[in-house]
Amino acid sequence: MSADSVNADGFARESLAVLDRIKGSARGEVRRAAELIADCVRADGVIQAFGTGHSQAMVLELAGRAGGLVPTNRLTIADLVLYGGEDPAVLDDPLLERKSGVARRIYDLAAPRPEDLFVIISNSGVNNVIVEMALHAKEQGHRLLAITSVAHTRAVPAAHPSGKKLADLADVVLDNAAPPGDALLELPDGGAVCALSTLTGVLLIQMAVADATSLLLTSGHRPPVYVSANVPGGFESNLKLEKHYAGRIRRTAS
User: Fold this and answer.
1) Spatial contact of 30 and 190, defined as CB atoms under 8 Å apart
2) In this structure, are residues 211 and 172 in contact, taking their beta carbons and an 8 Å threshold?
3) pLDDT for 4-56, tens place per residue?
4) Residue 234 and residue 60: Cα distance in Å, rounded?
5) pLDDT band at residue 251, thresholds of 50, 70 and 90?
6) What secondary structure letter does DSSP report for 69?
7) Which residues contact 219 (CB under 8 A, 6 or more apart)?
8) Greatest CA separation found in the chain?
9) Burial letters for 110-139: b for 16+ Cβ neighbours within 10 Å, e otherwise?
10) How far is CA 82 from the centre of its chain?
11) Angle between helices 8-25 and 27-42 (to 10 degrees)
12) d(CA 139, CA 151)
């Protein structure tokens, strides 16, 4: 790629081309992901979404947002402090997500039920806490939906002692089509700029939610969907829906 292509128009052109390709190539897997989501909602389960680093942006896209499903819960490393009583200084460790036992602690604090679906998001799919959470979720009998870059995960070695990667453990894998390292525009002297995975991850998530909602409607289930708290009556309507999942979903100030 030439230096002339490293600009706003170049990113828009290249990223939109990937989004257009995903719209068709991921259709079958999106449908399978939607079936997992719809099955979870029908079974009175909660969608437990987990990611670290910038993957938390996609977790926020799924859990607790206007236009999204109510039975969704956001899991984060910060739960160790917010709900587990750990000293906030523990979050100063940049290698915390690589330490053994962290994921199980986060899982235990959430106290998921067997009918809960896990959605784990990681571009590389190899960080220890990501794989540990996936392993533990499967050991506990949960269905697992992964959103990851297949190209990236194939390009790097497994880091977890099990030798597993996130994609190896999932019931359904949604490939965000991001290149290894995530950045889309190659620089003339090496390296790249402008990450892609958030754009593609959001597309995949919203496609899956849309299909899941369709499946729920077709089977006669009213989808429990958030409306914006910034429209009249929205906050009160959301509170009524959330009561059904009291103690199972966390909604904190953001």
Assistant:
1) no
2) no
3) 789 999 999 999 999 999 999 999 999 999 999 999 999 999 999 999 999 99
4) 19
5) confident
6) B
7) 38, 42
8) 57
9) bebeebbbbbbbbbbbbbbbbbbbbbbbbe
10) 20
11) 70
12) 27
